[in-house]
């Protein structure tokens, strides 16, 4: 049986241009022959766990995943025997309830700020950068912040809600450069503590709060990389809450990873080790959730830039591993490397997207004008806290 499974798996990998124990960087090097049976039985969960266990290795994991996803091997090697009970469980349980939402904060975002400081840009953005005319992570993330502010059409004195404020990067940038006040909410204790310190002295309030518990109104609402934690059962609730929080002429910017197909399940390895109860929305799900609540003014896709962002994060992680390994073991190293590079492969293969969607509550008179943004150029010093220090290139 094992030999038959090995042949099937080898043939599938060959169809993606991958040779087990081959010479290319994307070829997997298998050190335990039980690998084939394990992956055959348990699909993507076993693929990730067997890598963590050292059963196989690959010099270029990102290229490996790009190839198998482009060949759609993820659909061919899935184990179907667990699908029915998983779907029943998903229907019975709201995996993104307030209580379960806190699990995401504890398991992922509270891994330790030292890890994220070693991986992210200097402003601690844990979302996709905008790499147009950018050659480094810091510039790409600065571009993303500026582009987001321009899409929101921020003006001095506006009151902004930042749902899933992370380490406070957007709130700080918007307050410093656009003269707005911001309420940032997070369910991560580590992010809450960091963001409060990061934004001190500015008109910014950081709260340890679930989005469902916000009751004020704002001129603008922004959510950068949080919607993936909402879950399909709560998409409509989320959109209704945002509408309730927006004043009549308000704008809402949603920045989220998106999937090419509608699903109500999540990758089991990602769910177990990285983002508990996470879920990637589709165009259909977002449209259905927002229908009748908003007017969609602009929908942009720069998913290919997430590949660049993840590769930069991995480069920083690798460079700083000597320091980090005092706090994290080798199994964590393999898990985190697998997470970053596998995700990079999904964006390079274009199976995942990154969407920025601008919604208005009642429609913009005369229509919404998309900013003609191609990247930031420094005029003088980035330290000067005024938007006049920057110009569009």
TrEMBL record:
Gene Ontology MF term list: methyltransferase activity
Gene Ontology process terms (BP): lipid biosynthetic process; methylation
ATP-binding is among the record's keywords: no
Active site per UniProt: 343
SUPFAM superfamilies to which the protein is assigned, alphabetical: S-adenosyl-L-methionine-dependent methyltransferases
UniProt entry keywords in alphabetical sequence: Lipid metabolism, Methyltransferase, S-adenosyl-L-methionine, Transferase
Gene3D superfamilies: Vaccinia Virus protein VP39
InterPro entries named among the record's database cross-references: CFA/CMAS, CMAS, SAM-dependent_MTases_sf
Pfam families: CMAS
UniProt key word Transferase: yes
Stated family: Belongs to the CFA/CMAS family.
This protein's name: Cyclopropane-fatty-acyl-phospholipid synthase
Primary gene name: cfa_2
């Amino acid at each position: 049986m094992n030999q038959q499974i090995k042949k099937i798996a080898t043939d599938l990998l060959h169809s993606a241009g991958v040779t087990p124990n081959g010479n290319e960087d994307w070829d997997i090097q298998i050190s335990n022959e039980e690998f084939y049976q394990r992956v055959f039985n348990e699909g993507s969960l076993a693929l990730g766990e067997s890598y963590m266990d050292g059963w196989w290795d690959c010099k270029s994991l990102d290229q490996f995943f790009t190839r198998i996803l482009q060949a759609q091997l993820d659909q061919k090697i899935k184990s179907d025997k667990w699908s029915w009970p998983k779907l029943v469980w998903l229907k019975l349980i709201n995996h993104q309830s307030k209580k379960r939402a806190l699990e995401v904060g504890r398991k992922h975002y509270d891994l330790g700020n030292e890890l994220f400081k070693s991986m992210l840009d200097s402003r601690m953005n844990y979302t996709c950068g905008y790499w147009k005319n950018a050659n480094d992570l810091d510039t790409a993330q600065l571009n993303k912040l500026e582009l987001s502010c321009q899409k929101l059409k921020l003006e001095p004195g506006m009151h902004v809600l930042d749902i899933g404020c992370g380490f406070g990067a957007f709130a700080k940038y918007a307050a410093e450069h656009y003269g707005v006040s911001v309420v940032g909410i997070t369910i991560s204790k580590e992010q809450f503590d960091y963001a409060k310190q990061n934004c001190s002295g500015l008109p910014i309030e950081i709260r340890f709060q679930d989005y469902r518990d916000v009751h004020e109104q704002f001129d603008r609402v922004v959510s950068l990389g949080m919607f993936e934690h909402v879950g399909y059962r709560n998409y409509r609730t989320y959109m209704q809450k945002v509408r309730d929080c927006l004043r009549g002429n308000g704008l809402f910017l949603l920045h989220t990873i998106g999937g090419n197909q509608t699903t109500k399940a999540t990758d089991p390895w990602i769910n177990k080790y990285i983002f508990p109860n996470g879920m990637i929305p589709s165009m259909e799900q977002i449209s259905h959730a927002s229908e009748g609540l908003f007017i969609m003014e602009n929908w942009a896709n720069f998913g290919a830039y997430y590949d660049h962002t993840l590769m930069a994060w991995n480069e920083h992680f690798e460079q700083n591993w000597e320091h980090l390994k005092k706090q994290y073991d080798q199994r964590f190293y393999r898990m985190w490397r697998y997470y970053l590079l596998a995700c990079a492969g999904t964006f390079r293969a274009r199976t995942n997207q990154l969407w920025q969607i601008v919604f208005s509550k009642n429609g913009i008179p005369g229509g919404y004008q998309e900013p003609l943004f191609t990247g930031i150029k420094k005029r003088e010093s980035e330290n000067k806290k005024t938007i006049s220090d920057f110009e569009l290139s």
